[in-house]
Amino acid sequence: MNASALEAPRIPQRRKGSNLEKWGWLYMRLSGVLLIVLIFGHLFVNLMVGEGISAVSFAFVGGKLSDPFWQWWDVLMLWLAFIHGANGMRTVVNDYVLNVKVRTTLVWIIGIVAALMILLGTLVVFTFDPCPAGSDPALLASFCSEL
Q1: Cβ of 75: how many Cβ atoms within 10 Å?
Q2: Cα 135 from Cα 132, distance rounded (Å)
Q3: What is the count of structural domains for the chain?
Q4: In 10 A of CB 106, how many CB atoms?
Q5: pLDDT tens digits, residue range 11-64?
Q6: N or C: which end of the chain has fewer CB within 10 A?
Q7: What is the DSSP letter of 57?
Q8: Is the dihedral of CA 135, 127, 86, 36 positive or negative?
C-alpha cells in the first residue's frame, strides 16, 4: 500500500446554531463547583456556627429565611441543584433510552418536574412566614415577639 492510495480523513461538519450539549457539559462543571461552595457554606452555618445542630429549629429556619441574603443563597442552591440534577438525568436518558418517542417523553417529564419543583421551592423560600399567627411564642424566632 502506498501513501497515495490512502484517502484523506473525513472532516467533521459543524452544524449551524448553538451546541446545546457543549453548554450542558460546561454548565455541569461550573454549577458543580458553585454547588460545592453553596452546600458546604449551608452546612457550616447550619451545623457548626453558634450552638451547632442543637440550635436548628423552626425559629432558626424562620430567622434565616427572613434574611434576604439567606433567601437568595438557598434559592440559588435550589435552582443550581435541580437544573444540575435534571441535566444529569437527561444525559442518562439520552445515553440509554434507544426509542426516540420514549426518550423524548422522558426528557420532557424531567424538564417539567424540575421546573415545577424549582417554582414550588422558590415560592416556599420567598413566601415563608417566620411568625405564623396563633403559634406558640416559645417556638418562634426572637424577633416575632416584637411584631
Answers
A1: 16
A2: 6
A3: 1
A4: 17
A5: 666 667 678 888 888 999 999 999 999 999 999 988 888 787 888 887 788 888
A6: N
A7: S
A8: negative
